[in-house]
Structure formats: structure tokens, C-alpha cells
């Protein structure tokens, strides 16, 4: 792969989407080739899967159902967007990826962690990000942010204990993959957060991007 694969993760309302967009705009201003994408919904078919996953429903929606839909979305995303762009030397910035599935369906939903890792590996054909930024904030703050900003979706409306398990899961994943995942304090001003992200990129990929 010639391009860098950069992902952003975090609990609901952490500000990861804002930081991903800021990085994309920074690259554009610097004439650095990059695309901004997301999961779920990074392809046309993926957008339909996203609607299914996030819409409220009266039917029982199990963790297993979520898991397979997320992995189907991911495989479409890899084959149609992520892999082709990386092979062209275009940097890919992605809002959520494999760590979200591990945190949400694994640690928060309670599904088998090793099973999810195996399915992630199958869906991505072994592709992992070069670097991941985990924007970390207390779940109460994140939920307060989204409540004030928009109508909450099916997953966002889960109880506080779900979201606390989610955060704990993300932090555990980061602890296990310190070389790839960098935990960023999301309670700070968004410009200060972004400056921290750029500093990390500069140190890790000297003369490549910055």
C-alpha cells in the first residue's frame, strides 16, 4: 500500500468526526492527496446498511445481526474505496473502522472478542490502519453533546452502562495496540486536539505528510 490509512475512533459525541474532517481539510490545503470516508456508509450500498443499523425499529435487533451488517459494510468499503485509493498512493482518512466493531459489538454488547477479530480480519483481508486516533471523553459529556446537537439514533440511545462499557473497551484496545492507537484527550479545545494530532503524525511519519 502506498497511501497512509488513518482512522479515528471514539465514543458517541467524542468529536472524532470533526477531527477527521479537519485533517482532511488540512491535507487538501497542503496539496496532499487524501479522501475522507466513514463506517458504516462509505459506499452506496453501505449507506443503505447504515440506515438499517441506525434506524429505530420494533423488531429485535441482536448484537450478531449488527456484527454481520457492519462486517458486510466493511468488506464493501475495503474493496470499493479504501484499498483502491491506498494502492493509488492516496491517503485514506476513515471515521470509524475495526476498533469500533470490537468496542461496540464486543466489549459493549458482550459478543466474543476473538470471533470479532476473526471476522474483522476476513472482512478487511488483513488490512489495518497505519495509525488510529482514539478521541477519549467521559461518556456523560459525549451523550450531552449529541443530545444537544441532533436526534439520537438507535445505538446512541443505549443506556449509560452500554456507553461506559464502550469507552472501557476502546481504552483496552488502545492499551493492547500502543504502537498504532494514540489516545487523545477529547475534552480540550478542538484546535488544541488537532495540533496534538498533527504533532503525532509528524513524529511517526517524518517527511511523509507534514
Automatic annotation (TrEMBL):
Which SUPFAM superfamilies does the record match to this protein? Answer: P-loop containing nucleoside triphosphate hydrolases
Q: Which residues form the Thymidylate kinase-like domain?
A: 8-197
The protein's name is Thymidylate kinase
One Gene Ontology cellular component term attached to this UniProt record is: cytosol
**UniProt keyword list:** ATP-binding, Kinase, Nucleotide biosynthesis, Nucleotide-binding, Transferase
The Gene Ontology biological process terms listed for this entry are: dTDP biosynthetic process; dTTP biosynthetic process; dUDP biosynthetic process
GO molecular function, a single term: dTMP kinase activity
The entry's family comment says: Belongs to the thymidylate kinase family.
Q: Which reaction does it catalyse?
A: dTMP + ATP = dTDP + ADP
Asked whether the keyword RNA-binding is assigned, the reply is: no
Among InterPro entries, the record links this protein to: P-loop_NTPase, Thymidylate_kin-like_dom, Thymidylate_kin_CS, Thymidylate_kinase
Output the PROSITE patterns linked to this UniProt entry: THYMIDYLATE_KINASE (PS01331)
What is this protein's function per UniProt?
Phosphorylation of dTMP to form dTDP in both de novo and salvage pathways of dTTP synthesis.
Taken from the record, one Pfam family name reads Thymidylate_kin
* Residues annotated as binding ATP: 10-17
Specify whether Magnesium is a keyword of the entry: no
The EC number(s) given in the record are 2.7.4.9
Amino acid at each position: 500500500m502506498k497511501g497512509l490509512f488513518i482512522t479515528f475512533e471514539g465514543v458517541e459525541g467524542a468529536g472524532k468526526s470533526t477531527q477527521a474532517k479537519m485533517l482532511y481539510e488540512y491535507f487538501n490545503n497542503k496539496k496532499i492527496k487524501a479522501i475522507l470516508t466513514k463506517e458504516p456508509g462509505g459506499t452506496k450500498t453501505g449507506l443503505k446498511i447504515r440506515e438499517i443499523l441506525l434506524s429505530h425499529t420494533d423488531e429485535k435487533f441482536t448484537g450478531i445481526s449488527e456484527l454481520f451488517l457492519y462486517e458486510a459494510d466493511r468488506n464493501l468499503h475495503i474493496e470499493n474505496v479504501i484499498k483502491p485509493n491506498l494502492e493509488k498512493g492516496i491517503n485514506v482518512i476513515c471515521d470509524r473502522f475495526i476498533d469500533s466493531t470490537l468496542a461496540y459489538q464486543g466489549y459493549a454488547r458482550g459478543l466474543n472478542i476473538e470471533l470479532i477479530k476473526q471476522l474483522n480480519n476476513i472482512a478487511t483481508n488483513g488490512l489495518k490502519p497505519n495509525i488510529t486516533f482514539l478521541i477519549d471523553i467521559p461518556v456523560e459529556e459525549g451523550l450531552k453533546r449529541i443530545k444537544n446537537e441532533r436526534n439520537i439514533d438507535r445505538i446512541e440511545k443505549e443506556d449509560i452502562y452500554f456507553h461506559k462499557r464502550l469507552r472501557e473497551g476502546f481504552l483496552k484496545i488502545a492499551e493492547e495496540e500502543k504502537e498504532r492507537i494514540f489516545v487523545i484527550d477529547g475534552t480540550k479545545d478542538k484546535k488544541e486536539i488537532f495540533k496534538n494530532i498533527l504533532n503525532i503524525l509528524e513524529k511517526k511519519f517524518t517527511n511523509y505528510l507534514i
